[in-house]
Design goal:
The complex is a heterodimer of chains A (114) and B (113).
Chain A: E1 5-7, E2 10-13, E3 19-24, E4 31-37, E5 44-50, E6 53-57, E7 64-68, E8 74-78, E9 87-94, E10 104-105, E11 109-113
Parallel strand pairs in A: 2-11
Antiparallel strand pairs in A: 1-3, 3-8, 4-5, 4-9, 5-6, 7-8, 9-10, 9-11
Chain B: E1 3-6, E2 11-14, E3 19-26, E4 32-38, E5 45-51, E6 56-59, E7 62-67, E8 72-77, E9 86-94, E10 97-103, E11 107-112
Parallel strand pairs in B: 2-11
Antiparallel strand pairs in B: 1-3, 3-8, 4-5, 4-9, 6-7, 7-8, 9-10, 9-11
The chains are: A mainly beta (114), B mainly beta (113).
Chain lengths: 114, 113
């Protein structure tokens, strides 16, 4: 049973560029959440997708956008990259059973903005 | 606003001892609290969930307590092993939405052989 897979594993961009990160959820999961994790910090919630709609959003600017496809896979897009966007971007999938929202994480994409 | 606090200093213990990690939160009463383990370069891995009406939950060498009066959870690893060395994160649902999780910054555990 494949877990959550993310691509690419590493990415280097320059300020002002745009980036797209990809995520395939764990088999059977229908909900995908994206998190940003700075060094030494816990993951910060960016947004969650369910049924191809953004269901909830954290405190991130509109430069961060996403998409969920009919097969439940998802993309995270970041426009006009800033140096401060350098971080580990984590995708997590889940099933909202019992309202407990247990997250199954991928290994992440390490984004460096120069 | 909600806050979660975990000890930012690394916890350094001898193999075989019990490790105890703390998670404190403020400003509301969550329905549950989760603990995750994260190894360097990897995503967090879910370990345990404890609900507000549960005082204690166990899984093998792991034990979690949840004190809703103190607004605190304790995470214990008994008979610790070097392989337990990792960063441990606690997480709570946001007060305004069960779809969002807020994570603490994590506590790094180092178990010396």
């Amino acid at each position: 049973d494949a877990g959550v897979t993310q691509s690419p594993t590493h990415l280097i961009k320059t300020r002002g560029q745009q980036v797209t990160l990809r995520c395939s959820p764990k088999s059977g999961h229908d909900t995908v959440s994206w998190y940003q994790q700075a060094l030494g910090q816990g993951p910060q919630f960016i947004f969650q997708y369910y049924e191809e709609e953004e269901r909830q959003r954290g405190n991130f600017p509109d430069r961060f956008s996403g998409h969920q496809f009919p097969n439940y896979s998802s993309e995270l897009n970041v426009n006009a990259l800033l140096l401060g966007d350098s971080a580990l971007y984590l995708c997590a999938s889940s099933l909202k059973t019992g309202g407990e929202n247990i997250q199954y994480f991928g290994a992440g994409t390490r984004l460096s903005v120069l | 606003s909600q806050k979660i606090e975990q000890n930012s200093e690394a916890l350094n213990i001898q193999e075989g001892k019990t490790a105890t990690l703390t998670c404190n939160y403020t400003n509301y009463s969550p329905a549950y609290l989760q603990w995750y383990r994260q190894d360097p370069g990897r995503g967090p891995v879910f370990l345990l969930l404890i609900r507000e009406n549960e005082k204690e939950k166990r899984k093998e060498r792991l034990k979690v307590t949840f004190d809703t009066t103190l607004k605190q959870s304790l995470f214990h690893i008994t008979a610790s092993q070097p392989a337990d060395s990792a960063t441990y994160l606690c997480a709570l649902p946001w007060m305004d939405s069960s779809y969002k999780l807020i994570f603490g910054s994590g506590t790094r555990l180092l178990v010396r052989p």
